[in-house]
Amino acid sequence: MNTDDGRPKIQLGDYIILQRQKYTKLVKFSNADSTAMLGKEQLELGNILDQPYFSTFKMCPKEELGRSHRGRQRLHTLEICTDIELPNIREALGISSCGPDNRNIIDDGDSQSLKPDDIEQLRDEYNESTKIIEKIVENSKTFHTKTEYSQEKYLKKKEKKYFEFVQIKQPNIRLIAEIYYRQDAERIMSIRMDTLSQIISYSGVSAYGNYLMYESGTNGLLPAAFLNAMGSNTEACLVHMHPGNVAQKQAVLALNFPEEQGRRCISVNIYSVLREYYQGENSKEEESTDSNEHLEPCIKKPKLQNEVDEEKKQKEGFAGQQKDSINNSGQKIEQENINEIESDGSKQAQETTINDDCNVKCSNKVQVPQKWQLENRRACCLMREKFDSLFIAAKEHPTNLVRELLQLIKPSRPIVIFSLCREVLTELYMDLKTNSSKVINLHLTSNWMRLYQILPNRTHPEVNMQSNSGYLLTGYTVE
């Protein structure tokens, strides 16, 4: 649902991104009573329903929770702000004086006269971060003797702590990649945003064609990036192979893709789909045979109705012949035999009816294909048509994977292999150079990114550097 100006609205079931200054967090807005945690702040999300994305909300505390208790989680409701202009904290406080240097400042713990309980009381009395920071600055003994740079650093630290505005953003692949990388880079194989962009560029993903991917655990970041690059109005398909029983799709769900676009990602277990691809119909017969072995004997091979009727006729004919051949003295015995035969036939008919009912139930249970079977069939159809690109991000050694999946790629198509270990890709590079003539133009590259802090009179690299984001081996297939 969109607003009058075309901006989408927040709906139940959507994944949203909460941003408070530079801090971002991904949460799911499941129901009107949902809450989210931002540090020690607990936010009620009910008021954001049907509000446009990228709206700014003000955190309003609820007094009934007794927020004066230090360390206790504070509950806030969100009120939308129509017109908001965040003032410069230094100009708002009217600070004009500063010291020449910090040589005489001693960190003895007594520079702030306000105690923690006093600051908590200020948070109860004032609902604006500017007023709280103003009181903290007034009670600081060393603030006005600090340099201008130290004062701004101090004010930004306090503003970050007492900032009362939250913005609701719509998830995109860049924000999700940054959030996952900041929380736990190992969960996404340490793939930074710059490496992810290189992967998409080298793979040649577009709105047309079929693409093959194998990844062994990135929280769905790589499939989500490929689907995002394909777009919504597309004819492309992605076969996502994974080693586990269930594919990781957290990032795919977080992007709130339309249903049609989400169906273009076919997630299959690599061992299961390759077995069905090579064995074909034989694998289906083996699967049905294996499943019948676990059934009860009475349900496993039930008799058909015509077989039961033929047996009944044979028994009646045999009984008639016996009736003609025996004498009158044996009529009583013969009649007893006929009665027994008829009773056995009725029992068999009843058992056959029960077996037929059991057979119908079991046939319905066995014949209905499960979701993973349907996905395997869809993937096998695309595998027979061949793919336009191959991408592998494996925690294990990728040589066997490349040998197996390379034959499913059309000529003159790109292949991209990602790994955190350079030696692994070096071995694969030599293997493709010496033992395979299907790949040319091989290149082994690594991405290295340095972030800079750009401020007036102080530009320098950031103190905390990001580690290596893996290596890429790229090439093109030939006949």
Q: How many E strands? A: 16
Mean pLDDT: 79
Percent helix: 40-55%
What strand line-up does the widest sheet have? 2-1-7-5-6-4-3
| Domain module tally | 3
Secondary structure class reads: alpha/beta
Q: Which stretches are low in confidence, meaning pLDDT under 50 for 5 or more residues running?
A: 64-70, 287-306, 326-330
Counting DSSP H or I runs of 4 or more residues, the number of helices is 17
Instruction: Report the span from N to C terminus.
Output: 49 Å
Could you name the CATH homologous superfamily of the largest domain?
Answer: Vaccinia Virus protein VP39
Shape: globular
Question: Which CATH first-tier class of the largest domain would you pick?
Answer: Alpha Beta
Name given to the CATH architecture of the largest domain = 3-Layer(aba) Sandwich
What does this structure look like?
The structure is a single chain. The longest helix has 37 residues, at 331-367. The chain contains 17 helices and 16 strands. It has helices at residues 89-93, 116-125, 129-138, 148-162, 173-183, 193-203, 221-230, 250-254, 259-262, 270-279, 281-292, 297-300, 305-325, 331-367, 371-385, 399-405, 422-435; strands at residues 14-20, 23-29, 35-38, 41-44, 56-61, 74-81, 165-169, 210-215, 237-242, 265-269, 390-393, 414-419, 439-446, 452-455, 458-461, 471-477. The model is unreliable at 64-70, 287-306 and 326-330 (pLDDT under 50). 23% of the residues are buried. It is of the alpha/beta class and 479 residues long. The protein folds into 3 domains: 9-85, no CATH class; 101-161, no CATH class; 173-280 and 370-477, Vaccinia Virus protein VP39 (Rossmann fold, 3-Layer(aba) Sandwich). It is globular. The chain has a 7-stranded mixed beta sheet, with helices on one face. Strands 10-9-8-11-12-16-13 form a 7-stranded mixed beta sheet, with helices on both faces. Strands 14-15 form a two-stranded antiparallel sheet. Strand 14 (452-455) and strand 15 (458-461) form a beta hairpin. It comes from Glossina brevipalpis. One of its GO terms (biological process) is tRNA methylation. It holds the Pfam family Gcd10p. One of its GO terms (cellular component) is tRNA (m1A) methyltransferase complex. Residues 282-316 have a biased composition (Basic and acidic residues).
